[in-house]
Specification:
Layout (H helix, E strand, L loop, with lengths): L19 H26 L7 H30 L4 H26 L5 H30 L4 H29 L5 H25 L15 H19 L3 H22 L7 H25 L1
Helix pairs in contact: 2-3, 2-5, 2-6, 3-4, 4-5, 6-7, 6-9, 7-8, 8-9
Protein name: PilJ/NarX-like methyl-accepting chemotaxis transducer
């Protein structure tokens, strides 16, 4: 424990017989100096950067973006692998990879402000995994352009790293909630989970469309079949609709999401029969964008 010492020059002790007042004054000052030093010492021994409620909320938002961007990178790669010569798809992969790097960079910044401990270590691990992801993505793209088809081994490695990233972010999320005794807003959490579920579904669908083999290497956080996920997504939309209540603007936005979902729901449920990758991916991306828009608007008012 650090105790601040008071310079000896600030305490005047006159031992001469001529000025006994100085001695008395010093005697009164000494306990104050000691008390001040003890207070400073106690304060310095407390955690300097313990996670508070506001920081926990910001951290959960950043971790959600990491998970979301990880899904979207994998999804865009699969779509690019269907048409390796498509410059727009190649650009989308790059943009989403940059978004992932930016979100993990934010995690790194937040981690360095925290005290040493489990949460800090978990957060610092995330940028490391993203670095592995970026390297594998670069190799996969280069190999795809050269061969015009994917190397299954490289794709499997990248999918595994994506899964590691999602798991690391989810683990850090739970640690952050525990560290700050924080519970996120129920509606915000529902929207985040619905967004991640849709991204997982579209990534699996794109993987199946890209190759009959690559479906094994989807990089998803769960092995739950697409049709089961589709039923769960339907339930999540109904739960969100019920929770919105009389929020007219949010309800209007949700109706737009439901319309897009109605258009592709059958393709997800019957994914072995109807393979219309472009249409499913197009509307799935629209749903993700609309969910994020709704999430952003509700986050400002929560």
């Amino acid at each position: 424990m650090l105790v601040k010492t008071v310079p000896s020059s600030s305490i005047t002790i006159d031992v001469s017989n001529k000025r006994p007042v100085g001695l008395l004054r010093s005697a009164r000052l000494l306990p104050r100096a000691l008390a001040y030093g003890l207070v400073v010492g106690l304060l310095s021994s407390l955690p300097a950067h313990a996670l508070d409620q506001a920081q926990a909320a910001e951290l959960l938002s950043a971790l959600f973006k990491v998970r979301s961007n990880g899904n979207l990178v994998m999804n865009s790669y699969y779509n690019f692998s269907i048409a390796p010569g498509d410059k727009d798809e190649r650009l989308l992969v790059s943009e989403r990879a940059e978004a992932l790097a930016s979100s993990t960079g934010r995690i790194n910044e937040m981690a360095t402000t925290l005290e040493e401990g489990q949460l800090r270590e978990q957060l610092l691990r995330i940028p490391e995994i993203q670095g592995q992801y970026a390297a594998l993505l670069k190799d996969n793209i280069a190999d795809l352009i050269e061969r015009q088809y994917s190397d299954i081994r490289l794709v499997a490695d990248m999918a595994q790293v994506n899964q590691n990233l999602l798991t690391a972010a989810e683990t850090a999320k739970r640690s952050a909630m525990d560290a700050a005794s924080y519970q996120p807003d129920v509606m915000v959490e529902q929207l985040r989970e619905a967004t991640l579920l849709m991204e997982s579904m579209m990534t699996k669908y794109s993987a199946r469309s890209a190759s009959t083999v690559s479906q094994v290497f989807q990089g998803a956080q769960t092995d739950e079949p697409i049709d089961v996920q589709a039923v769960n997504f339907d339930k999540q939309l109904n739960a969100i609709k019920a929770a919105l209540g009389n929020n007219a603007e949010a309800t209007k936005a949700l109706k737009s999401i439901e319309s897009s979902w109605f258009f592709i729901k059958g393709s997800y449920i019957n994914y072995n029969e109807n393979n219309v990758s472009y249409v499913v991916n197009l509307y799935s991306n629209k749903i993700v964008e609309k969910l994020n828009g709704l999430l952003e608007s509700l986050s400002k008012t929560s």
